[in-house]
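During the reporting period, we have paired protein sequences with backbone structure tokens. One record among many follows, to show the layout:
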Amino acid sequence: MRVAVFISGRGSNLAALIGALRERPDATVALVVSNRPDAGGVEVARREGIPTAVLQSSAEPAEWLALLDQWRVDFVVLAGFLKQVPSRVVQRFAGRIINIHPALLPKYGGPGMYGLHVHRAVLAGGDAESGATVHLVTERYDEGPVLGQARVPVLPGDTPESLAQRVLAAEHRLLPAAVLAAAPSGTAVPFVLTDAKPAPFAQRPTPNATHP
């Protein structure tokens, strides 16, 4: 299963996924795409020799589909990608686009709910726990069916930053589990997170690929 990962930031979930898939014959990160040329995750991919691309217009479905066709992508992962997926792309890859969100959906989702905004909302709401969710991508932000979740406690004295660190550690386990669950069929499926942890990510100074 050839996976395209879409990012907007530093790419820590991308790094975790690359590490988890490194020795797997059934799934590979074939392409990394960002809406920002300076996103840290772009450099993570380049150091691993994974092809990269930067969207000129994230709202243009033809640009998405041209890239996904060029690199023969089977499955799409949004890993900290902050733009909405165009409807044509959602329809073309129905059941084959997932997103990871830093809260226990359906709570604390929707437009504007990303990064520390989510964790501030969790603390303001007085929740006893938070976590991460992998869900199918639909045409509405964070409203697709939930596929799997990881829960973390909210501790006394937590700040948005400290809660974010624990949730991110859960994301690094949850996202690879979601992709590995999808690999046999090439389609996203519900899954349960086990205690098994993915292999640690180790960067390798290999050249960036330029052709499919």
Residues 60 and 86 are 7 Å apart (CA to CA). The two ends are 15 Å apart (CA to CA). Residues 196-212 have pLDDT under 50 and may be disordered.
